[in-house]
Amino acid sequence: MGAEVLGAYFVYTGSRFIPFPVSSAVEDYKNMIINSSINDILYTDTFHAGVLNPLAV
């Protein structure tokens, strides 16, 4: 991955890359993402992506 070449240890890319043909995700999961809409999003403050960023701690 390009980020690793640049020295990153972990990269949070999000779900936009999951449905790509080269993804190792199963086809049903890829199709679920492709067929989803804004109404399928569930907001919760239970999880915080900031814990993935050591600079945010």
TrEMBL record:
Answer yes or no on keyword Oxidoreductase: yes
Under the GO molecular function aspect, what terms does this record hold?
Answer: dioxygenase activity
Q: Which UniProt keywords apply?
A: Dioxygenase, Oxidoreductase
Q: What is this protein called?
A: NAD(P)H-dependent flavin oxidoreductase YrpB (Nitropropane dioxygenase family)
Species source reads: Virgibacillus litoralis
Q: What is the lineage of its organism?
A: Bacteria, Bacillati, Bacillota, Bacilli, Bacillales
